[in-house]
Amino acid sequence: DLDECAASPCKDHQYCLNTDGSFSCKACDASCVGCTGEGSQKCKTCASGYVKEDETCTDVDECNLPEKICTKENQDCVNTSGSYKCVCSEGFEDKDGTCVQT
Prior knowledge:
The chain is an all-beta fold. It has strands at residues 14-19, 22-27, 32-35, 43-46, 50-53, 56-59, 75-80, 83-88, 92-95, 98-101. The radius of gyration is 20 Å and the shape is elongated.
């Protein structure tokens, strides 16, 4: 078997998987910018919104940062994978960018 992966035939956001007589390109984990294999522990660099902890790219919980990011009145922060979103608190709804009581 010839290791086609030695020639790095895959794109930047993929890793090469050598198979018997061939190879395939697989997508890197969402937490990676470039990778050497499957999973968040094989990242070359962590994607935005992720931080390297114990050799693994882990989601940053922006909602638990010391500085509040959802600063509008009656707004809550919801952590998402690699990011966050600001939503109106329970009992409030978004009216032209302001959270008003429902």
